[in-house]
Design a protein that fits this description.
Helix content: 25-40%
Distance between the termini: 11 Å
Structural class: alpha/beta
CATH class: Alpha Beta
Number of strands: 5
Radius of gyration: 16 Å
Strand content: 5-15%
CATH superfamily: SGNH hydrolase
Length: 220
């Protein structure tokens, strides 16, 4: 049995973009386990794989968001790895929340933040009592072209251009640490509803695209 942890933000959590325009007082919605990209990936992989999904809305890489404190992955990842050890594969897909304009972080520095997480996984995981997991780094999809006009998305002002640079910067970090890399923007796009999250059909596309990469990585 191969154990996989999918570690990410609302894109992994399964946030339904329609939630962005919900009436006041209405409950937040998320896609089902089977609809989210990790669940789609698991279904494609078939038997012999155990999946643990660690998605958290608002999660950043290493930067503390003053308007959403306590969501930096830098303080979460090692406890997650230790809790679920031993792991065969860690999938990291983060960076979208780092694009918020008030954090003032460049695409290069977002990638450097992801590098800190990879370093944690490779050198600090499970307090050295098990072998480190393999790592698959996924760069997030680009923000939507209408993000600057989208209702309540003013926090991402100026983020579109930076989001288009993440793939190249993440690839550099992946090569530096010798881990696998996949650019999700090559197969999926942000929802036209909120310009930030992804619709259910994009979850399906991503899950099916990631499955063969994971299968090859974990082949005996």
């Amino acid at each position: 049995m191969k154990t996989i942890v999918a570690f990410g933000d609302a894109l992994t959590w399964g946030y339904d973009p329609k939630t962005s325009h919900r009436p006041r007082g209405a409950k937040m919605e998320r896609f089902s386990d089977e609809e989210r990209w990790p669940g789609v990936m698991l279904a494609e992989l078939g038997e012999g794989y155990k999946l643990i999904v660690e998605g958290l809305k608002g999660r950043t890489t290493v930067w503390d968001d003053p308007l959403a404190p306590g969501l930096s992955a830098a303080g979460h990842l090692i406890p997650v790895l230790d809790s679920h050890a031993p792991l065969d594969l860690l999938i990291i897909m983060l960076g979208t929340n780092d694009l918020k304009h008030y954090l003032g972080v460049s695409a290069r520095d977002i990638a450097r933040g992801v590098g800190v997480l990879i370093h944690q996984a490779l050198f600090n995981a499970a307090d050295d009592f098990v072998d480190e997991p393999k790592v698959l780094l996924i760069s997030p999809p680009h923000l939507g072209e209408g993000v600057n006009d989208a209702q309540r998305r003013a926090d991402f002002r100026g983020g579109l251009a930076k989001s288009k640079k993440l793939g190249a910067q993440y690839r550099i970090i992946a090569e530096r640490y010798g881990v696998a890399f996949f650019d999700s923007a090559s197969v999926i796009k942000a929802s036209e509803i909120d310009q930030w999250h992804i619709d259910v059909d994009q979850h399906e596309i991503l899950g099916k695209a990631i499955a063969p990469v994971v299968r090859e990585m974990l082949a005996d």
